[in-house]
Amino acid sequence: MRSSGGQSPTSSPADPSEAIGVDNARKTLPALINKALQGNPTTIRFETYCATIVGIDEDADLTGMPRFGVRESREKLSTLVADAAGSPSVLTRNGKPVALLVSAHTPVRPATSRVLATVGDSVAALLDDRDRHEAGIGIPGVDRAAAVLRPGRLTLAAGAPGTGTSLIALSAAATAALDAGASVLYAASGPTRSDITLRIIAARADVDYQRLRASTLGAAEQQRVGDFAPALRAAPLLIDDGSGLDPAAIAEVLDAAGNGIHLVVVDRLQTEPHPHRPLSGANVPQAVRELSHIAQQHQIPILAALDSADHGATLALGADLVLALTRTESGIQLRITETELGTQTEVPLLLDGSRARLLDRPTSAPTTERSGVTAIAAAQPTAVAAQPSPAPQHAEPVPAAPQAAAPVTAPKRAELRLATAEPAVDTEPNEAAEQDFDTDVPELSEREIGSSGPEELQWMIRQWVLEASEKHDGDVKAIEAALKRRAIPNVMELFARSRVGSRYDHTGFPPGLEIMKKQTRNGPDQIWEARPKWLSPSVHIGPPRLAEALDVNGAYLSAFKCHLPVGKLKHNLTGSYDPKTDGDGVVLITPPTWDHPHLPNPLGDRKEPGRVWITTATFRLLLRISKLDLCDAPKIHESWVAHSSEHLLETLRVALRDARQDAIRDGDEITLEFVKTMYSKFVSTIGESNSNSKMRRPDWMHLIRSQAFSNLWWKAHKAHEAGLEVIGVEGTDEFRVVGNWRAVKTKAGTLLFPEGRGLAEVKTKTANNKMIGGE
């Protein structure tokens, strides 16, 4: 009788029912070996596994079997018993083979030149994962759903260009080389070694891919690249991006490397023919067959990216596993299909193009009113995580990472190459001619778009920037122009996604009111927004002194946090109005008298006497001021109001705020300008604009603007209360003061006006500073 490796035991395995425990066997192992040499096998039991010690013939073929001395066998006996079904062990004494540890269930196998195996040969290895750690592709949701990388099997990651097939390949290679320390052959038919290296850095060091390519990273991003470089330098990743790359070339590398390579990634197979790429066009079906054969022959996993949106045709190619990627309105959908068994599962993903990676698509859960910030369980990068850092100074060039030496001896085809690769002025964008903007906002139903939290909206912003960057090949002016044209439809899509599943279903097109219709073609309607334009009378008197202009960052974006009516406005002629119970909209008032020349009038620079329609944002300001005894409460005559919420724009506000902060941190002027354009155009076009067909809420437009002006007034008032001399207030975001404003603190001991570019900070407009007084 022959056992699993072709050796000839001197006796048959004993009955498993008579097995002894592994602890007893460990104590008496030398005696058990002697019994086996005399033709008396002993069966050893460990948990559910049984293995038998048998003697061996002197001429037995023991090639390829692991060998263990008596002392080492005692220490590892539990593992050897568990592994015996798939891998018999040779027990040696003084280096000489004396016995075999084989499965107690090994069946009789005919003497033949064919290699015969049973299920028992592999069941222990399949069921006992203690010593088997197969690397996944680095996307947790996919790795939990299926074992994508299997020895001896070919997996195709297939999808239309732009769905992330190459990023699947990149993630798998990086995970194996960086996380598992396994040697990887990256067969690059399309991307260059530089492309591959830069994409790995962008994904793992969490830096912007396009700025990495252009060597324009901010200081914080440069630091992350520097921290990550040593790990990448040491990674056993072999890149072959030479010409003539085909399955024969891949097989050549594997043959030369012996067992030194543990994963092959092919990036990529192209269904469209390419004159200089053998892995394209009509060659693809044969290439898939040859790659499948290579995987089986070398018993290693091969993952190949395929540019094809035809799922049926991809399955017909005959790969063992197909990962089909398709773009949806909410991200990327990955379908896992076994050729013989059909579709196994689907995994929702997000394409984070700015970092050249695919991520699990997070699920969002609304807070008490969906009005609050949505909690997101977001997938994190597996390597260096981005840490908050101060706004970068002028970016230094990114140093090139040193070339890495490969730990695997490989032929000359496979070489390991490693090459790595501002200040934006934050002012409110002018409300430019809207014919410069695209007006086609995507038609999205709630079922199509799903609910999105701030993090997912940020990923969408990154993707739009990346798509524009790729389309215009890094031309900054062209990229900015393209993003500007898409700012209106893009921000409306962000808003639509942020509102799905909300507690309140807002009305996008309530009936129009006569008071909100423009009185002339290009003139205003009847709503007074209280825009300030004020200069203190003391500017021309007193000693000479410097008046510094302070700029409020992101004034319109901060004003997104205001009370907005949910439904259509309802008319109230009683003259009674309580903002706590009646909601928000517009009210007709008789303005109170203002007798404080040292402070701006909260109603702005209005000169006309008599009644005026104002927003409830301005009314709330007047009501608060009246409680400070600075003026009387305004007298109300009538109102148009509706139930309101302060949180209708909260998710959108948080997403734009965080995208803005990230752009400032990374020195990303393109994204910063894009975000500013989106929030300013949202305000200017939701009223009555041919550039935005998705909403007609002039009441929202007036309320947001008035809230921005109200916020500015309060900053001027706080400056006055802190002892600074307020000289002027103008527009949406500027007030001028005399005095050491940087040193002024609140009662809690914090700076009243922290300097910086965050939404809670101010910065100086040096060009608007001027000397006053002296007359």
Shape: elongated
Please tell me how large the radius of gyration is: 36 Å
The secondary-structure class comes to: alpha/beta
State the separation between the terminal residues, measured CA to CA.
117 Å
* Strand elements, count: 30
Q: How many H/I helical runs?
A: 22
The major beta sheet can be summarized as: 9 strands, mixed
Low-confidence stretches: 1-14, 127-133, 364-435, 439-451
Helix content: 25-40%
Beta-strand residue percentage: 15-25%
Going across the biggest sheet, name each strand in turn. Answer: 9-8-10-11-7-12-13-14-15
Mean pLDDT: 81
Please render the helix and strand layout as text:
Elements: E1 20-21, H1 22-27, H2 29-37, E2 42-46, E3 49-55, E4 67-69, H3 70-75, H4 77-83, E5 89-93, E6 96-103, H5 119-127, H6 140-145, E7 154-159, H7 165-179, E8 184-188, H8 193-205, H9 209-214, H10 219-233, E9 237-240, H11 247-257, E10 263-270, H12 284-298, E11 302-307, H13 311-316, E12 321-328, E13 331-338, E14 342-352, E15 357-360, E16 364-365, E17 375-376, H14 446-449, H15 454-471, H16 476-499, E18 527-528, E19 533-535, E20 545-552, H17 555-558, E21 564-565, E22 570-572, H18 579-582, E23 584-590, E24 612-615, H19 616-626, E25 635-642, E26 644-645, H20 650-666, H21 669-685, H22 698-721, E27 725-730, E28 734-738, E29 762-764, E30 770-772
Parallel strand pairs: 1-2, 4-5, 7-11, 7-12, 8-9, 8-10, 10-11, 18-24
Antiparallel strand pairs: 2-3, 3-6, 5-6, 12-13, 13-14, 14-15, 16-17, 19-27, 20-28, 20-29, 20-30, 21-26, 22-25, 23-24, 23-25, 27-28
Helix pairs in contact: 8-10, 11-12, 15-16, 15-20, 16-21, 19-22, 20-21
